[in-house]
Automatic annotation (TrEMBL):
PANTHER family: METALLO-HYDROLASE RV2300C-RELATED, QUORUM-QUENCHING LACTONASE YTNP-RELATED-RELATED. It comes from Acrocarpospora corrugata. The keyword Zinc applies. It comes from the Bacteria. This is MBL fold hydrolase. Keywords: Hydrolase, Metal-binding, Zinc. Belongs to the metallo-beta-lactamase superfamily. Residues 37-237 form the Metallo-beta-lactamase domain. It holds the Pfam family Lactamase_B.
């Protein structure tokens, strides 16, 4: 089984390199402007429609100084996807830009790491160094979904569908996930926030937000091992994603790319 794999940009912002990399001063480089893009990923084929992450609403984006380019429901409509037809949603982690709007998908199985959900519904999630990265309403929605029996709690490796495997790498958050997909053009690794920017892999440079620094280094090593030589790695926030892969709509190359 092979799938069409799309990376869809729904929002953006401008920031500084010093805000992105942990202890960036140790690298001895001048600061610079950096664009951060926000994506969700769509995997479809063989009668399956799988969302990897669900993004934030324009209201949440406005409150956090992010620019919404195409709200997720509109992006899905443009791609010909009815949210009611999405049969599985993978939440790679609980942060606001990845785990919002789960209510859009009334029929979907919601898959998230057991460690991740346990953490965000546990005693330390409310501490400021963690809480700033989530929306309380999103976590409450996950509680309700769990109570309703709609959440699948994942372990270290999980075969979500033929040709789609979910792997827990941790580091950025306690249960950060990545997705390995048999794409139409070859294997694809949706790295999400295990790799925000390709520089994290190429320069061994961890992101500024992490639950466990050693775990984040280990996660980068795991991504390298999973990727090997022939896997297309899709970073979680890098604008370069839009230039590495083929535009879904050549008239609007900033909207989405086909990774497969």
């Amino acid at each position: 089984m092979s799938y069409e794999v799309l990376a869809v940009r729904y929002a953006t912002r401008h920031t500084r390199a010093s805000h992105l990399y942990a202890n960036s001063w140790i690298y001895g480089e001048p600061d610079r402007d950096v664009r951060m893009d926000y994506y969700f990923w769509l995997v479809r084929g063989g009668g399956r429609t799988i969302m990897v992450d669900t993004g934030f609403t324009p209201e949440v984006g406005d409150a956090r100084g992010r620019t919404t380019l195409c709200p997720v429901p509109e992006a899905l409509a443009r791609l010909g996807v009815n949210p009611a037809d999405v049969d599985a949603v993978v939440l790679t982690h609980g942060h606001y830009d990845h785990a919002g709007q789960t209510g859009l998908f009334p029929r979907a199985e919601i898959a998230i790491s057991d460690r991740e959900l346990t953490f965000w519904t546990g005693p330390y999630a409310g501490r400021p160094q963690f809480a700033h990265a989530v929306e309380a309403a999103d976590i409450q929605a996950l509680r309700h979904l769990d109570d309703a029996g709609r959440i699948t709690r994942l372990g270290d490796r999980h075969p979500l569908a033929p040709g789609v495997e979910i792997v827990e790498v941790g580091g950025h958050t306690p249960g950060q996930l990545v997705a390995l997909v048999d794409g139409e053009g070859g294997p694809v690794l949706l790295a999400s926030d295990a790799v925000h920017y390709y520089d994290e892999l190429g320069l061994d440079r961890p992101f500024a937000v992490f639950a466990n620094l050693t775990g984040m280094y280990r996660g980068l090593d795991t991504v390298r091992e999973l990727a090997g030589a022939d896997v297309a790695v899709v970073a979680g926030h890098d604008p370069d994603v839009l230039t590495r892969f083929t535009p879904w709509d050549r008239a609007d190359p900033g909207f989405a790319v086909r990774v497969s």
